[in-house]
Amino acid sequence: MNTASVQLPAWINYGVIPLLNLALAFFFSGLVVWAIGESPVEALRLLLIGALGRGEGIGFTLFYATSFIFTGLSVAVAIHAGLFNIGSEGQAYLGGLGAALVALSFDRYVPWYVTMPFAVIGAALFGAACAAIPAWLQAKRGSHIVITTIMFNFITSSLMNYLLVRVLIVPGKMAPETRTFLEGGQLPKLDWLISMFGGRLGAAPLNFSFLIALVMCFLVWVLIWRTKLGYEMRTLGISPTAASYAGIPYAKIVMIAMLISGGLAGMMALNPVMGASARLQIEFVGGAGFVGIAVSLMGRNHPVGIILAALLFGILYQGGAELSFDMPSITRDMIVVIQGLVILFAGALEYMLRPAIVRLYQQISGK
Amino acid sequence: MDYFDIFIGILGSAIRLSIPLLFTALAGLFSERAGIFDIGLEGKMLVSAFASACAAYWTGNAWLGLMAGIVVAIAFSFLHGFASITNRGNQIVSGVALNFVAAGLTIVLGQAWFGQGGRTAQVPGSGRFTPIILPGADAMREVPILGPLYANVISGNNILTYIAFLMVPISWWVLYRTRFGLRLRAVGENPGAVDTAGISVSWLRYRALIVTGFLAGFAGTYLAIAQSAAFINNMSAGKGYIALAALIFAKWKPVPVMLACLLFGFLDAFANFMQGKSIPLIGEVPVQIFQALPYILTCVLLAGFIGIARPPKAGGVPYTKER
What we know:
The complex is a heterodimer.
Chain A: H1 10-36, H2 40-52, H3 55-80, H4 88-106, H5 112-141, H6 145-167, H7 191-196, H8 209-226, H9 228-238, H10 240-245, H11 250-267, H12 270-277, H13 288-298, H14 303-326, H15 334-348, H16 354-365
Chain B: H1 3-33, H2 41-59, H3 62-86, H4 91-114, H5 137-140, H6 146-154, H7 159-177, H8 179-189, H9 191-196, H10 201-227, H11 239-249, H12 254-274, E1 278-279, E2 283-284, H13 287-302
Antiparallel strand pairs in B: 1-2
Helix pairs in contact in B: 1-6, 1-7, 1-10, 1-11, 1-12, 2-3, 2-4, 2-10, 2-11, 3-4, 3-10, 7-8, 7-12, 8-10, 11-12, 11-13, 12-13
C-alpha cells in the first residue's frame, strides 16, 4: 500500500517523527560509545550535567546555541526559497571580517552600543557579499547553488587565511589574529540573565548577541510568514513553475533570499568575534555553518524549531566538551559523530519511519 | 639548480598529489552519472584511509589494507544509497551527514584504539605501498630530458599510481562501451525510460554506488599507506571537494577528469614550491591564491565562461515509480 499521500496530524509530523528520528540518532551514538567500552547511560548523564548542571555550563550552552541560531536561520531562509545554502560556513567567516573591521575602527572612540549596530550591519553585509556570487550564478547562469557555495567556502577560507596571516596580524606576533578589541568593540556578557535564575555565568562567554539572535528569529518569522516577499519566496520554494506562472521574478527572489541568508550567517560572527574572544581569529567559525544545516533540518525551518534545535546542539557541544574531560577515552569529536547521525536520521532518512507510523496511526484511529 | 630539474621535481610531486583526486573524481563520476549527487566523497576517502591504515597495521599487508579501505568505502556508499535511493532522502543532506560521521568516527575510534589523539600507529614497511623503480630508470638517468623525466616522473611511483591511470581508460570503457555503462548514463538522464525498459532503477544506482565506493577506497588507501604511513586526523583535508570540483571542471567525462586532476595536482605542487619564494617584478605570490585557484576556476567554468558544464539531468532527484 502506498503511504506517501496519507495526511498525518501535525503533532505526529512535527512532534513524534522528529523525536523518533532523534532517538534513533542517539541510539546509534550510544552504540559507538558502548563499542569504545564506556557506558552510554553514564556518558549521557555526564553530558547533561556538563551542559545544564551549573550557571557556567548553561552560559556556554547558550553561547554555542547563539551561533547555531544564526546559521540555522541562514540555512532555513534559503530553504524556504528552494535553495540549499551550504555556504553558511564561509559566509560567517567573511562576516567576521566585517564585524572585526567595524570593531577595530570604532572601539577607541565610542561605547559598545554605538559600535554594535554598525557591527551588525558590517557582519551582515560581508556575509551577504560572500553569498552574492553563488546567488548570481544560480539566478542568471543556472549553476547549482550547492556546488558554488561549497567552492566559496574554500575560496573564503583561503582569502581569510591570507588576510589574517599577512594583513591583519599584529606586527611582531606569531598568532594569525587581529589585536584585541577595546571595550568599545566588545559585546557585553549577559551575567544578569543567568543570575536572574540564580546561577553564575563565571567564565562563560554568553553575550549580547544571544538577544540579537532572538530578535532575528522573530524578524525571520515575520519575513517568511507575514510579508509579500516571504510569500513569494515560499511559492518559489514549493513550485518554481507556479511561481513563474504567478509572475514572481525568479532571479530577483533568488538573489534576495540568498543575500538575506548570507547576511544571517555573517551575523553569527558577532558572537565569537565580538562577544567571546574580542578579536578575529583564524577558523573561528569552527563548523557552526554546517551545524546550521542540522539545526534547520531538525527545526523544520521554523524559527521556534530552530531555537529548540540550536539549544540541543548547544547542549551537545558544551556537554561533549565536559564529557571528554570526565571520560578521556571519548574525545570531543564524538559530538561530530552525533551531529552527523542527527543530520542523517533527521534529514536524509526523515521519511524512513513514516510508512510504519502511518500504518500504526491508521490502525489506532480505526480507518 | 637547473630550471629543468625544478620542473621535473614539481611534475613528480604533481603526479603524486593528483592520484587521490583522480581516484575520488572517478568515483564521483560513476555516482553522478547515475543521477546520485555525492558530496560525501570526502567522507568516503577519510573512512577508507582510516580502515586501510588500521588493517595494514594489524596485518602488515598493504593489499589487505587496500581491501579494508574498499570494503568500508562501499559500506558508506550503501548508507548513502539507503538514504537517497531506498528512502528517497535528500542526496546533499545525506552526503553532508556522512562526511560528519566519517570525520568524527575516525578520530573517536582512532583515539580509542591507538590513543594517539586520533592518529593510528605507524604502519610497518610491509604494510605500505612503496615506490617501484621501473627497469632501466638508473641507466636512463643520464639521457638528456627524457632520462630525468623517465627516472623521476614515470618511474619511482607506487603501484596505486599506475592503477589510477589505468582506471581512466577502464572507466571510459565501462561507461561508454558496456551495457552497464549505457544504462548507468541513461539512469542519470532519464530514469523513467530505464524503468519502462524493465530495468530496476534502484539496483542500477546501487551498483553505480558500489563502483563509487570501490574507487574511493583506493583514494583513501593511497593517502594512508602509500603517501604516508599512518592515518592522521582529517587527512583528506578537503581533497574530496577538490575532486568534486575537478569532476565538474571536467564536465563529467573520464579523460577530462584525469586532465583536471593533473591540473589541480600541479597547482598544489606549484603552490608548495612557491612557498616563500618571490617572482621577479611581481614579488612574493601568496600561496593562498594557488590553494583557492581550483575552486575559482570551477566557479568560472560554472558561470559559463569556459564552455557549458551540464550536469546529468536527473542528478539529485530521487526516483519515484509512477503509480
